[in-house]
Amino acid sequence: MKLGAHMSIAGGVSEALLRGQELNCHTIQIFTKNNNQWQAKPISKDEADLFALRLKETKIFPVISHDCYLINLASVNQDTEQKSIAAFTDEILRADLLNIPYLVMHPGSHLQAGEKAGINRIAKNLNTIFKQINKTKTMILLETTAGQGTNLGYKFEQLAEIISLIKDKEKIGICLDTCHIFAAGYDIRDKKNYQKTFSEFDKIIGLDKLKVIHLNDSKKDLGCKVDRHEHIGKGFIGLNGFRLLLNDERLKDIPMVLETPKSPDGNADLENLDVLRKLIK
Hints:
single chain; 281 residues; alpha/beta; TIM Barrel; eight-stranded parallel β-barrel; two-stranded antiparallel ribbon; 9 helices; 40% helix
């Protein structure tokens, strides 16, 4: 299985690959810039070349990119919307330069404009971006959300509707976050509920659209709509939910990455990965 974790890019994007290699990751997720700033200096040719070299050396694949937290393609504020379009366009170009196949994004927050209006705005802005940079290869993955505030993407139907409005369907897929779907009310703790949740996903969106999974336990209980990640097996999902996920033959080729809390000594990722690997039959 392709198991890994989100890695820091301190010192350069290529450093994340070395950090992933130290943890025996088969896949990793990164930010390609500071995740709390609108703009960043371009990735230099030297850094892109070093990243490509270390990709070959570490054999980590795929590397997954996550966009910056400021971006909101559903924003009704024109200034924020335009900043988001520019920033997300740059995120795609950065990922594409590094030959990163997947860029994960939070769909957006409608900010009291209403879910339908927010969904339409996200799709409109994505279509505009895809038209402007139609030769990029990086696929955009809409991430399932917990449903905090006015965030969209906490229902499979919302994600399916966004996809239905995208003109170039080959450029769009899904990243499923276990903590987020659980917080949104989708139970995966036992076999019956697990099968029900994934049957719904397959019927509404399609398992063929699922490209990446974020492995996070939840600090809060089912349906709370609060996004709080916990270490594997120490939250309300518990070990059995992850056991079912890791041994689901339909998902065996999908990269799965941790976004669990980090520790000062760096051992938390190692411990969580060890827990996951022991659950695989």
